[in-house]
Specification:
Helix content is 79%, strand content 0%. It is mainly alpha-helical.
């Protein structure tokens, strides 16, 4: 079970890297007012959702403790991120505030995962 959990943790990290990497690649465009949500951001957020749900299930199946409040906060942030990226994915440009919100929530999600013990 440990190998499977570690596999999903790795995939979860790949998802967050895709989401954050997509955001960071658009920062220059954000300064010019032409930033958009790239497909990597959508795929990363969706990967995080699927692997995160799988990780919760695997940890509970392995009788490991799961902090449900932490997971709920991370899930709420991720749903907002996923919703914004999904709805605005075809727009040529995205409002700076919405784009910044996705970056802020992504960063907050990372710090919640690392610091909330």
């Amino acid at each position: 079970m440990d190998v499977l959990i570690h596999l999903f943790v790795g995939l979860h990290i790949i998802g967050i890297a895709s989401l954050l990497g997509g955001f960071l690649t658009q920062l220059k465009a954000l300064g010019q007012g032409v930033a958009r949500f790239v497909p990597a951001m959508l795929h990363g957020a969706f990967t995080m959702l699927v692997t995160g749900v799988a990780l919760v299930g695997l940890n509970q199946a392995d009788d490991q403790p799961v902090n449900n409040i932490k997971i709920a906060v991370k899930l709420a942030l991720l749903i907002v991120i996923l919703g914004l990226v999904y709805v605005k994915r075809d727009d040529e440009t995205v409002d700076k505030r919405l784009f910044g919100l996705v970056g802020l929530f992504t960063t907050a999600n990372i710090f919640i995962a690392v610091l909330w013990t």
